[in-house]
Design a protein that fits this description.
- The protein folds into 3 domains: 231 residues, no CATH class; 84 residues, 2-Layer Sandwich (Alpha-Beta Plaits), CATH 3.30.70; 60 residues, Roll (Ubiquitin-like (UB roll)), CATH 3.10.20.
- Helix 3 packs antiparallel against helix 4, helix 4 crosses helix 5 and helix 4 crosses helix 7.
- About 2% of the residues have low confidence.
- The chain is globular and about 70 Å long.
- The chain contains 11 helices and 19 strands.
- Strand 14 and strand 15 form a beta hairpin.
- It has a 4-stranded antiparallel sheet, covered by helices on one side.
- By secondary structure, it is an alpha+beta fold.
Length: 383
């Protein structure tokens, strides 16, 4: 379904097949336009064996499967771009670790019955190829919709979601799909776990293409289709954040340092404390914490544990971001980390990291401002 959606977005099939040939595995793709409910979508069938001659039946490789070590060996030896190989290996590692935890064995002893055959290797590698060929720099996904019921596997009948799927979705927001069939396989969950930067609603962007990847035809209230949207931000990045707020009038001020430290350890993006005048004219403090939506519960628990808060207000909002990166530059005072941001209009903003500059100033005996200037100059010279 993922591969079908990428092809429907505009991934050139010839380029995909040329890249997949680097695996050195006998296979070919059958791509069809199908209908799932009211939607037209692309259905991708991976056939094991050469295009000519007697075709092997689909999923024949699942009879014996492949071990995790064998899959790593195949991908390591394949003629693939380094970034594609790295992403494909990461997907299978996530899947392997989930299977190892579910079955209580070491990673090296994991044997993929359902997902170890040629078609699964093609699916995973094709997903990595497609994201690279389409120049996708960031992936977001809506909360994962999970079906119910049971599924037949090599280990017998298992409840849905499959145990490995649930293992892979730790920390990922999910919603019930209200359908009695498997909406997310372990392979699909591994792809999501590895390639998705954030689970959220559709971000702000200019839509350039929409693709639909079809799964098997299923009965139910919704079509078995994966929708992919390709878009571009107007020079700005965007994500989603939560803001947690609480007002305190009985916390010892000298404990704020510990509170902030604990919140940052719990995943806070920023923490601010503001003086406020509260009811009954009491002086107090407004504590505001920014974090990712997936961290809201962890941050709320830390606020309750480390402060006198009895309630926390939570709001969610879009955030627009300038492109940025952290560089380490060489200066006469040592290596300094520098944050470099682009304003979208050709301008560059440079901000040396304070802690690095302070340590360098202490070690060298130089003035802090001289260390900062040296780091700024080195960053500009290297940009």
């Amino acid at each position: 379904m993922f591969l079908g959606a990428l092809l429907d977005l505009g991934l050139p099939r010839r380029e995909l097949e040329a890249d997949l040939s680097g695996l050195g595995l006998p296979h070919h793709l059958i791509v069809r336009r199908v209908h799932r409910g009211a939607l037209a979508a692309r259905y991708v069938d991976v056939r094991v064996g050469p295009r000519s001659g007697k075709p092997a039946r689909r999923r024949a490789g699942h009879e014996h499967g492949r071990s995790y070590r064998e899959i790593v060996r195949v991908l390591t030896r394949a003629r693939l771009d380094a970034s594609i190989r790295s992403r494909a290996l990461a997907i299978f590692e996530a899947l392997g670790r989930a299977e190892a935890r579910v079955h209580g064995v070491a990673l090296e002893r994991v044997h993929f019955h359902e997902v170890g055959a040629v078609d699964a290797i093609v699916d995973v590698t094709g997903a990595a190829i497609g994201l690279g060929r389409l120049s996708v720099s960031r992936v977001t996904a809506s909360p994962v919709a999970l079906g119910e019921g049971t599924v037949e596997t090599q280990h017998g009948r298992l409840p849905l979601p499959a145990p490995a799927t649930l293992e892979l979705l730790h920390g990922v927001p999910t919603v019930p799909a209200h359908v009695a069939w498997e909406t997310v396989t372990p392979t699909g969950a591994a792809i999501l776990r590895t390639v998705v930067d954030e689970f959220r609603s559709l971000p702000a962007m200019t839509v350039e293409a929409v693709g639909h990847g079809a799964g098997n035809d299923r009965e139910g209230p919704m079509p078995n289709v994966l929708r992919a949207v390709l878009g571009r931000s107007a020079g700005l990045g965007a994500d989603r954040v939560v803001c947690l707020e609480t007002q305190l009038d009985d916390l010892v001020p000298e404990h704020f340092d510990h509170l902030m430290e604990q919140l940052f350890e719990a995943g806070a993006l920023d923490v601010t404390i503001q003086h406020v005048q509260m009811k009954k004219n009491r002086p107090g403090f407004l504590v505001r914490v920014l974090g990712r939506p997936s961290e809201r519960l962890a941050l709320a628990r830390r606020l309750f544990a480390e402060s006198t808060a009895l309630g926390v207000r939570v709001t969610e909002a879009d955030r627009l971001l300038l492109g940025r990166e952290i560089r380490r530059v060489d200066t006469p005072y040592g290596r300094i980390a520098v944050k470099v941001a682009w304003d979208g209009e050709g301008g560059t903003r440079i901000a040396p990291e304070y802690d690095d500059c302070r340590r360098a100033a202490r070690a060298s005996g130089a003035a802090l401002r001289e260390v900062v200037r040296a780091a700024e100059a080195a960053a500009r010279a290297g940009s």
